[in-house]
Each structure stands twice: as C-alpha cells, then as structure tokens.
Design brief:
Layout: H1 3-9, H2 24-35, E1 46-50, H3 54-63, H4 69-72, E2 75-82, H5 84-92, H6 102-125, E3 129-133, H7 140-147, E4 153-162, H8 176-179, H9 190-208, H10 217-224, H11 233-239
Antiparallel strand pairs: 1-2, 2-4, 3-4
C-alpha cells in the first residue's frame, strides 16, 4: 500500500487528547483541504464553525450526551450544511430561489460529509487524531440556537481534533464481499460472512475492554435499530427550510 492508503486504513477514533495546542495556520490548512473535496454542481454547501469559547464547548458537550472530549480537545469544529449563502447569491441576481427540496438537503449534507472527511484525513496526516460527534443532533435545536445558525443552515456533526493521548486498535470493518458487490446486489453469503465478522468484533471488544464487554456487530446494530432514531430531526429540518418537498 502507498502512504495515503496506509493512512486511510489506519484510522481510529481518538477520544483522549494531550493539551498540546494546534496552530491556527494548521487548522486553516485543513479547512482548505476540506474545500478541495468534490462538491455537487459546485454548490460548496458547507460552513465550518470553530468553537473556542469554553462555555459554548461545555454546552455542546452536554447537548451531545455529555461527551467530555468536546471540551478537552484542543480544537472543536461544527460542520454545517449551508444553503443560506445560496439565497444571498440568488438575491444578488434578483432570482427567486426554489428551496425545500429533498435533493437540496441531500446534496448539502453530502457536500458537508465529503468536506469533513478531507479535513479529518488532512489532520491525521499531521499526526493528529479525530473523532466525529454526531451526538450534536441529540439536541440539534439548542445547538443551532447556541451557534446562531440562520434559516437553511443546520449542524450535521462536530469534529474533535488533537494530538492523541491513547493508542486504540483499528476497529475491524465488514468483510469486503459484504460491501463490494459485482453487477448486482446479492446477499447469498452475507449471513455466513456476518457470523465470522461477529466473532471478530466480539474478540475486538473483549481485548479493548479487558473482558468487560463482549458484543458482536449484529447485536450492537439490532439493539440500536429497535429504538427511535432522533424523531425530532424531521420537524427541525423542516423548520430550517429543508425536506419540504
């Protein structure tokens, strides 16, 4: 493997960071790397808010389910899907912006995810660690108010960045044949492959926790998917001008 692929396949989520600061020039370089990601029809629908204020950090950590690394990470970024500036662009040309389409929600959200992943890889290439914070969507209306997000802007997730103060193992991913299909979708082998993968994940958790946790991937997923998944999201997104049609 070349160094880029080695970096990509060595990814771990880091939740413990040293207090060593990160130069602002580096953060700005990572953001420029994010801007270089593919963007649907050149819409560039991602805005990043760097949260430095410790009171805001503490509130965001609480909103995200009391995740302390939101406060302790040297850098915390919030990635927002942003169609607000597109309204400004339309107004400049006296154009009546047609908004609220599901496709616009999808393209803006995908743009944001691609942007963020470029930022994450750029940071990891400099020896930093990262962890995404999807928990911001637990109390997304409070996050939006705290950050002063206008209409047609919503927080997709947060990102902690810092120098790692832990060295976790790489978490095994699904077997390649379950993910890479040829010409058509087939699942004839998936049950058998999943059984082997469940054993691998159970062993991974056993090693990582010193025997305190033994759970397979299918157990984890089945436990998660019998619960409601943030049912407040639809009404919130509609209040922001998304998913109206």
């Amino acid at each position: 493997m070349n160094p880029t692929i080695e970096l990509l396949t060595a990814h771990r989520s880091i939740r413990a960071f040293t207090p060593e600061p990160i130069e602002q020039a580096k953060i700005e370089t990572f953001i420029k790397a994010g801007q270089a990601a593919a963007t649907s029809s050149f819409i560039q629908a991602c805005t990043v808010i760097q949260v430095n204020n410790q009171q805001k950090r503490a509130a965001l950590a609480e909103y995200a389910g009391n995740q302390p690394y939101v406060v302790s990470a040297p850098v915390f970024l919030v990635f927002c899907a942003d169609m607000h500036r597109h309204k400004i662009a339309c107004d400049l040309h006296h154009a009546d912006m047609q908004s609220g389409f599901t496709e616009q929600f999808m393209t803006a959200t995908i743009d944001c995810a691609l942007f963020a992943q470029n930022v994450a890889i750029a940071a990891e290439s400099e020896g930093l660690g990262i962890v995404y914070i999807g928990g911001l969507r637990n109390q997304i209306a409070n996050v939006s108010e705290l950050l002063g997000l206008p209409d047609k802007v919503y927080p997709v997730f947060g990102l902690c960045i810092g120098y790692p103060d832990q060295n976790p193992e790489v978490k095994p991913r699904l077997p390649l044949p379950m993910v890479l299909k040829q010409d058509t979708y087939t699942d004839a082998q998936d049950t058998a492959l999943l059984a082997d993968y469940d054993n691998e994940i159970r062993e991974y958790y056993r090693n990582r926790t010193g025997g305190n946790k033994e759970m397979s991937w299918s157990e984890q997923i089945s436990g998660m998917l019998v619960k409601e998944a943030r049912p407040h999201m639809l009404s919130f997104l509609q209040s922001k001008g998304y998913l109206l049609k």
